[in-house]
Amino acid sequence: MLDGNVNGKEDISVLICDDSALMRNLISRVIDGTEGMHIVGKAMNGQFLIDKIPLLNPDVIILDIEMPVMNGIEFLKYRKENRIDIPVIILSSIAEKGAAVTMQCLELGAADFITKPNGSVSADISSVSDTLVEMIASYGGSYARRKHHKNVYGEEFFLHIVSDRAEDRTISKKLATVMGEDKAKKFLESQHHAAPSASSTFDRPRFDFSAPSKPKEPATITPLREPGRIEVIAIGISTGGPNALREVFKNIDPHLKQPILVVQHMPAGFTKEFAGSLNKICALSIKEAEDGEPIEDGHVYIAPGNYHILVERGGLGKNVIRLSQEPQRNGHRPSADVLFESVAKIYQNKALGVIMTGMGKDGAVELAEMRKQGAWTLGQDEKSSIVYGMPRVAFELGGVQKQVSLENMADEISKAAREHLNS
Fold it and tell me: Which CATH architecture has domain 232-419?
């Protein structure tokens, strides 16, 4: 583990709040065993957490929900009332039993959530350790740079996970059809630097620590046809997505005509509640997608957790949604690549593809395919992304026509939908 200031960079400081001493220790082992982050303090309930925040000034908080004296919900209400902006990641067993409670946490300002495996006293924290590390690096790193002007280890430190070579071969073939064999080979080589094997208590994927700090110049894609009218909008998003989507759908044009299909990387059992929470703040109708249902204009469909979402041609002029449990793509199900691939095939140049904050590369290759087919495309910019991973790779592949801030994303989507409704 790197501690303090090494090579001009500081660790991300983490404050844990959990009433279980076992969980506090298990989480500490994961974090203190990971380069670029360390535990700055622990609290057994929300009241102790409040007392420790001004003393420890953490970059990110890991928060349980069920605790005595002051529980997680009560702390989040206090945090909101007192305008504490330190990001909070929910790690709780109740989240698995009560998705509605988890969504309430997000509505109160929590950044994201992870469910404890097998209950609140499980020693199997290793099963979620990679996700926990990713979220700490993403939310904690972003906050530290923004608020403390720290030069910290953050999302770029963990940006590219060295992926399975069988999957690489599949991606390589796909990229070759989009950008040519030579360019595809050079791009993939740039994404797979040799990464040192990390010794840790837990067996985690190898991270590529040498990710570039700035995006490379984008590849050139020559569309097969001119962009046409927009008949559907497809959005792919991951880390940082819950709050980013709240921002987008809160401000989307209430008169938008086109349907919107969304892939947000989220566990099974939560997407229905998530869709419901978005529906409360959006003038459009938002729901969890169902297999075989017709795609209606002006409706938003959220891919269910653990299911790919695809588009299929239907009768009477209406396409339909198909759900699939085919293998994961890019380590995800649902996968943005699966959605974008089907939209590129069915709608070709009559679609708008949007890729937003998220770690890794899911959605990037098939957004480039959408662009090749003539679709309109947008990508979230680096400054407003919690993790500029997915949109970065899409940009480098030439799949992003225009980079947009989160603040302006709803307006850009709405504007494109209006201007290209009948063209």
Answer: 3-Layer(aba) Sandwich (3.40)
Express each pLDDT in 34-91 by its tens digit: 888 999 999 999 999 999 999 999 999 999 999 999 999 999 999 999 999 999 999 8
5-157 in CATH: which number? Answer: 3.40.50.2300
pLDDT in tens, 240-273: 999 999 999 999 999 999 999 999 999 888 999 9
Catalytic option among 112, 337, 362, 381: 362
Catalytic annotation present for 362: yes
Is the preceding omega at residue 334 within 30 degrees of 0, hence cis?
yes
User: Considering 38, 160, 265, 308, which one is annotated as catalytic?
Assistant: 265
Q: Which one from 13, 238, 342, 384 is the annotated catalytic residue?
A: 238
pLDDT in tens, 345-380: 999 999 999 999 998 899 999 999 999 999 999 999
Instruction: Give ranges for CATH 3.40.50.2300 in the chain.
Output: 5-157
| Radius of gyration (C-alpha) of the chain in whole angstroms | 21
| pTM, two decimal places | 0.85
Task: Give the pair of three-digit tokens for residue 246.
Answer: 């709240």
Nearest to 363 by CA among 351, 373, 354, 375: 354
**Half-sphere exposure of residue 350, counting CA atoms within 13 Å on the CB side?**
10
Q: How far apart are CA 187 and CA 172, in angstroms?
A: 9
List Cα–Cα distances, 365 to 28, 121, 184, 310, 406, in angstroms: 36, 40, 11, 16, 22
Q: Residue 379: beta bridge partners? A: 355, 403
> For this structure, is 324 an active site residue?
no
**Residues of each domain in the chain carrying CATH 3.40.50.180:** 232-419
